[in-house]
Amino acid sequence: MTDQGTNEIREKVKPYPMKLNLVGGKIIKGEILKLTEVGFLSDLKGEFVEVGDAYKADFTIPVFSKHITIDIIIIKTYDHYMSKDNVVRIVECHYEFIGDDIKQEINRFLEAIQQT
What are the structural domain ranges in the chain? Predict the structure, then answer.
């Protein structure tokens, strides 16, 4: 795909999932499945967290390659046991505080992928 009026080639980027690190007592790796202005849903690959836990979320918004580090709180967990040793753990996280600059980047991303 090329931009009109330029010879720049733009590659399409999948918006989801986004790689995620939650940093607290340890680093928990996961994926953001849906990003919103208030927080996000993530798959923590079976790692256990509790409602009310606080972490620093670290991720990069695709499309614009904007790196975000923000304090979050675990609001809700959705656990699905596939088998005794296999748990799908989806976690709802909300930002503790979101500055205008980060909110603007998230809204720009949501508009670009037409999620608004």
Answer: 18-109
Nearest CA among 59, 53, 58, 60 for reference residue 92: 53
Question: Is the confidence at residue 105, as pLDDT, over 60?
Answer: yes
Which top CATH class is 18-109?
A: mainly beta
The position carrying tokens 């989806």 is 90
Three-class DSSP category at 23: strand
Helix (H, G, I), strand (E, B) or coil at 63: coil
Confidence of residue 64 (pLDDT cuts 50, 70, 90): confident
- Residue carrying structure tokens 């409602």: 51
Q: Is 107 helix (H, G, I), strand (E, B) or coil?
A: helix
